[in-house]
Amino acid sequence: MTTTYEAPGSASAPGGPDAVTAVVAADFETDEYEADFGGEAPTRIPSSEGVEIGPRRGVRSATLDERFNIVGSLAGGMALATLLFGWISPLTGVVGWFVVAYLAFIGFYMLLVSMRSDFQEVKDRVATVLMVSAGVMLFGALVFIVVYTLIRGSEALPYVNFFTQTMELTGPLDPLSSGGILHAIVGTLIQISIALAITVPLGIATAVFLNEVGGRFARFVRTIADAMTALPSIVAGLFVYAAIIQLFTHQRSGFAAALAITVMMLPIVIRASDVVLRLVPGNLREASYALGTTRWRTVWHVVLPTARSGLVTAVILGTARGIGETSPVLLTSGITAVMNVNPFEGPMISLPLQVFDFVRSPEPTMIARGFGTAAVLILLVLGLFIVARVIGGRGPGQLSDRQRRNAQAESLRDLQRITMLDDRIYAGDYPPARATQNIVSTAPKPSDPEETSL
User: Which positions, given as ranges, span the membrane (predicted)?
Assistant: First the structure.
C-alpha cells in the first residue's frame, strides 16, 4: 500500500490539515515515506520519560582492584628490598634501599595489572604511577629542605635580637643572644626592590613587543632572551663588576648588586611573560579592534588584564631566581657587618651572602646563625609569593569583595534613579514645566488656515 502526501489545505487532502498531519505521522514508520523523500527518514528525538537514571559514576576514585594492586606492589617491593639488604646480599644504605624498593614496586605493579588488563592499559597505569611518583618526590624534597632549614635554624630564631640587631659588635665566639641580621634583611629588600623596579616594566614591555609587534628584530630578541636564561650567575656578576664598578662607581654597592640581580631576573620574566601572553585568545583582540580601539589600548585594557595572573607568576619566578643569588652579589655588593640603607654608597650585604659568610665559619654559633638566616630567607620569599598572589592571583573578570559591593551599590543607585524618573513621568512632573514652556515658546507657530488657503 502506497501512501501519498498532500499539502495541508489542499483540495485533495480529505479532512483538512489534521488528516494530513495524521497521514504524515503514519508514514514515518513506512518505507514508502523514505522513498518519497529521498531515502532518509526525518530525525526524531526519543523521549526520556520513564527512563531511570543510575548513580553517578566516580571517575576520580580508585576501584578496589586498583587499590589492591598499589598496596600489594608497595608491600612486595618493601619486602624484597628488606630481604636483599638484610638477608640475601651485603647491600647497605638507606638511599639504595629506597631505590631497590621502588624498582621492585614498579615490577610487581606491572605484573599485577597485566593479569587483568591488556598491554595498553599496563602502559597507561605505569605511566600514571611514574608521574605521581615524580610529583611526590619533588614535593617531598621541597618539604625536606624547608623543614630541615627551620629545624637547624630554630636555635637562633627564638632570639629577638636576631631580627633587631646587626653584627657590628658581635664576634664569632659571642652567644646567640648577641648580634643579628637586620642589616642583611634591609639590604635584601632594597636590592630586590630596585631589581623589580627595573625588571617588571622592562620584562613585560619586552614580552608585549614580542607578541604584539613581532618581526625579525622580535625573533632576534627572543633568541637572546632564551640564551640569557642559561647564563651562569658568576658571569652576570663579572659583567656588572667590569661595566659598572670598574668604569663608573669604583666601589661595590647595593645598586651594583641590584643590577647583577636584574641581569639574572630579566630573561626569566621575559620568557615566562611571553608564554603567558601567547595564551591570550586572539578573538579578544579582534573584538577590541572591531570596537574601534587602538593597538595599545587593546594591550592595556584587554591583553594585560586577561594575562594578569600569569604575569604575576612570571614575576614570582624571576624574584625567586634573583633573591637567592650569591655569587653576583659577592662580586658587586661586598660583605659588611653594619647597617647601610644607601644603595649607591658603600657595601651592602644581603641574606644569601650573609648565609655564605656565616656557614663558612667553624663556630657552632655562627653555623646556627647561618641556618637561621636561611630560614628567614625562605619565610621572606614565601611572604612575597603570598602578597603577589593576593594582588594578581584573581583571573580576568573576577572581582574582589570590595569591588563586588561597590558594583552592587552602584546598581542599586541606578535602579533607584530609574524608578524615581518613572514615578515623575507617571505623575506628570517630568519634563519640568520650565522646560515645557521653553519648548512651546521656541516651537514654530501654526499658520492660519485661511492664509494657507489664500
Answer: 68-88, 94-114, 126-151, 181-210, 230-249, 255-277, 298-320, 371-392
Instruction: Supply 219's cell numbers.
Output: 625573533
pLDDT in tens, 215-270: 889 999 999 999 998 889 999 999 999 999 999 988 999 999 999 999 999 999 99
CA-CA distance, 319 to 201, in Å (whole number)?
Answer: 14
Give the other-Cβ count within 10 Å of 303's Cβ: 20
Domain co-membership, 238 together with 293: yes
Task: Tally the domains of the chain.
Answer: 3
Do 334 and 376 reside in the same domain of the chain? yes
Please count the residues of the chain. Answer: 454
Q: Give helix 308-323 / helix 364-392 axis angle, nearest 10°.
A: 170
Q: Where are the alpha helices (DSSP H) in 335-448?
A: 351-359, 364-392, 401-427, 433-442
CA distance 328 to 321: 12
Cell (9 digits) for 381: 620569599
Residues 232 and 132 in one domain: no
CB atoms within 10 A of CB 69: 23
Residues 6 or more apart in contact with residue 213 via CB below 8 angstroms: none
- Other CB atoms closer than 10 Å to residue 316's CB: what's the count? 19
Instruction: With respect to residue 54, please indicate whether it lies within any of the assigned structural domains.
Output: no
**pLDDT tens digit sequence for 261-308:** 999 999 999 999 999 999 999 898 999 999 888 988 999 989 998 898
Q: Is 271 helix (H, G, I), strand (E, B) or coil?
A: helix
Q: Is residue 413 part of a domain?
A: no
Cell numbers linked to 249: 662607581
In this structure, is residue 435 part of a structural domain? no
Between CA 171 and CA 360, with CA 241 as vertex, the angle to 5 degrees is: 30
Query: Do 68 and 209 share a domain, yes or no?
Result: no
378 in any annotated domain: yes
